[in-house]
Design goal:
334 residues; alpha+beta; Aminoglycoside 3'-phosphotransferase, Chain: A, domain 2; six-stranded antiparallel β-sheet; two-stranded antiparallel sheet; 15% strand
């Protein structure tokens, strides 16, 4: 039966304020690659798109429900009071839709408490309201998170092989002829990254031996860090466990890189200093530089992919963003 309620009908229902139990004054809808998010004054409701991609499968109702439940479980590690639950969008006997009510479930959504937008790290960087104490507080939260996480069982050579495969995958994506990016520049980055991985193999193997490879957040960016008195980190990468298995230093380098991209490189330095003081783990600078370059190339790939599904008027923006990330990669890789 639920196949008769199409995505357009669900979206139309969820855009209406009267559809929500607390009857908000307005609802704002935001579309991402893999979801729709509906914002009321108090809550955010996330609906997974019914898509199937090489790295995820949301094509069935059961798969989407499972993804919502996994998101709840994983995100409560770093934001325990933000993620309220998984709620149904139902069809009643008469055919009308209802949210968080009786009927046959035709969709499942994550329900989250809204956080103050101005307290998100990216917004605070733009407004220049982020201070040293803010950074130390959320860095201590992250240090405790990585300290308490169980080490993943992975052989050192398998870990390095995975990094090498990802480097080559990113390169292959960026060198697709349709993007017309400079091949000489990309080949130099590929060679530099692979060379660093081989040259510092002992350092990477030591990270594995020191049990620093854990199940992390997976998408640690400034827009996911909320600078409350008790900081929370939201919106982890829930759909692919492999992408969450990483070096704590990799994840922190990713956050540092993104802060640098926003014009606040001092934040990354303080994050690593606080992390090291709290955990006793001082990642070698060669490792940090490698991870920053690695993440910058990944971000360049994701930026250029936006040209596939964004209007031509945004082409200049996404090309500039791609080149900005490639320049950051070169800073750390070459």
């Amino acid at each position: 039966m639920n196949a008769n309620v199409d995505l357009a009908g669900k979206l139309d229902f969820l855009r209406r304020p009267q559809s929500y139990p607390d009857r908000p004054a307005r609802v704002d809808a935001i579309e991402t690659h893999m979801s729709w998010v509906f914002l009321t004054e108090r809550f955010a409701y996330k609906l997974k798109k019914p898509v199937r991609l090489p790295f995820l499968d949301f094509s069935t109702l059961g798969a989407r429900k499972h993804a919502c439940e996994e998101s709840l479980r994983l995100n409560r590690r770093l934001a325990p009071d933000v993620y309220v639950g998984v709620v149904p969008l139902c069809r009643r006997a008469g055919g009308e839709l209802s949210l968080e009510d009786d009927g046959e479930p035709v969709e499942w959504l994550e329900k989250m408490r809204r956080l103050p937008a101005d307290s998100m790290l990216d917004r605070a960087i733009a407004a220049r309201t982020v201070g040293v104490d803010h950074v130390r507080r959320f860095s201590r939260v992250l240090a405790a998170f990585y300290r308490d996480a169980a080490a993943e069982s992975i052989a050192p050579d398998a870990y390095r092989a995975r990094l090498r495969d990802d480097i080559e995958d990113n390169h292959a994506a960026l060198t697709e002829p349709m993007w017309q990016l400079p091949r000489t520049r990309l080949i130099a980055l590929l060679d530099a990254q692979k060379g660093a991985l081989e040259r510092h193999a002992a350092l990477f193997d030591a990270r594995v031996a020191q049990r620093r490879i854990v199940e992390g957040h997976g998408d640690l960016r400034p827009e996911h860090v909320c600078l409350l008195d008790a900081p929370v980190i939201i919106d982890c990468l829930e759909f692919n466990r492999r992408l969450r298995i990483l070096d704590a230093a990799d994840e922190l380098a990713y956050l540092a890189l993104e802060c640098e991209h926003l014009g606040a490189p001092w934040i990354g330095a303080l994050v690593f200093e606080t992390y090291a003081d709290e955990s006793g783990d001082w990642p070698p600078p060669e490792i940090i530089a490698f991870y920053k370059a690695y993440r910058a190339v990944l971000r360049a790939k994701l930026a250029i992919w936006h040209l596939r599904d964004h209007p031509p008027s945004t082409r200049a923006h996404w090309l500039q963003r791609t080149h900005d990330y490639l320049a950051l990669a070169e800073r750390y890789a070459l």
